[in-house]
Amino acid sequence: MVALRSVVVGCGSSLPARVVTNDDLARRVETSDAWIVQRTGIRQRHLADETETTSVLGIRACRAALEDARLGPEDIDLVICATSTPDHTFPSTATQIQAGLGIHQGAAFDLQAVCAGFVYGVATADKFLTTGSARRALVVGAETFSRILDWEDRTTCVLFGDGAGAIVLEARESAGTRDDRGVLNASLRSDGRHRDKLYVDGGPGSTGTTGHLRMTGKEVFRFAVGSVTDVIADAFRLSGTSAEELDWFVPHQANRRIIEASADKLGIAREKVVLTVDRHGNTSAASIPLALDVARKDGRIRDGDLVMIEAIGGGFTWGAALIRW
Ligand code: UT7
């Protein structure tokens, strides 16, 4: 049977030039390189300067993805930007990225699922592409979390970084088997009862301010390891694949211990796990496309590889997608 599949045809990323090490942070708050590395695996993060807004980083990442795909602005008819740190309340960061790239056709919108935003973005773009509503989509995760951190709160400010990553998805006719390239399936979940474990204490409709990130890290940790593996199990079941057949596991990069515990629980070998949290910190919706770009550029991810992406974020929101690269 011939069906449409959303095939990854390019990826790119962008990081601010400024690198901040754990030792740099230890001069600012009561913390240490040893604590941060032992609890999270993070060694450094990139932080945006005042000129580097989310759309600026997003435009750079999308431009790199378009170059990688050998496509131009005229080829894209959908831009989805996953972000929790938009330049402004409105217009959407996606429309600013669209304009910055010189794309004047199709639709662009932001998608808000916090750290799960990129997985939500891939799942959403896949619906547009496989139903024929769009032909080629840029899905970008772009964040400047440094702007919503409480820099006095050592329990959160050491964890996050800024950056952006993007992929180009193209609708292609496919025989539709699990061996054919493209997004095989995506499973999304959310449960708003967990709001108080990870949230921002402000917003345009409540305080009229931007607010700061607040998190009960232990509770998020427990949920991340204990519950979110359901979507990964779903992805394997729906595609008729298994952990043994997986080539690369590219999870949201929040904490090395969460990632390794999840991989162990699912029977995914440690050498198949792509880890960038040491270099990037937690860049929320940008973390997966940043990691995909690293693993693609260093030659690990090759065409035809089976790649699992997975994330959990505030809400809680969580999801997984299985991609034949
Ligand atoms: O992307 C969104 C998803 N977010 C996450 O996935 C984050 C999930 N949670 C985590 O990654 C971990 O819970 C943390 C890394 C945030 C914390 O690790 P933990 O092992 O859960 O530590 P804890 O919160 O239980 O804190 C242990 C101790 C506390 O001191 P006491 O009460 O035992 O005296 C904290 O005050 O570590 C202290 N502490 C710190 N010490 C040095 C907390 N933050 C720091 C710090 N430096 N930066």
Automatic annotation (TrEMBL):
Q: Write out the ranges of the annotated region (ACP-binding).
A: 253-257
Can you name the source organism?
Answer: Methylobacterium planeticum
Query: Known Pfam families for this protein?
Result: ACP_syn_III, ACP_syn_III_C
Write down what this protein is called: Beta-ketoacyl-[acyl-carrier-protein] synthase III
Tagged with keyword Cytoplasm: yes
Task: Tell me where on the tree of life, at the top rank, the source sits.
Answer: Bacteria
Enzyme Commission number(s): 2.3.1.180
Copy the domain comment.
The last Arg residue of the ACP-binding site is essential for the weak association between ACP/AcpP and FabH.
Give the NCBIfam families listed for this entry. Answer: fabH, PRK09352.1
**Which EC class is this protein assigned?**
transferase
Q: Where in the cell is it found?
A: Cytoplasm
Q: Which residues form the Beta-ketoacyl-[acyl-carrier-protein] synthase III C-terminal domain?
A: 239-325
Family indicated by similarity: Belongs to the thiolase-like superfamily. FabH family.
Which GO CC terms are listed, alphabetically?
cytoplasm
> In this protein, which residues make up the domain named Beta-ketoacyl-[acyl-carrier-protein] synthase III N-terminal?
109-192
Q: Does the keyword Acyltransferase apply?
A: yes
InterPro entries, per database record = ACP_syn_III_C (IPR013747), ACP_syn_III_N (IPR013751), FabH (IPR004655), Thiolase-like (IPR016039)
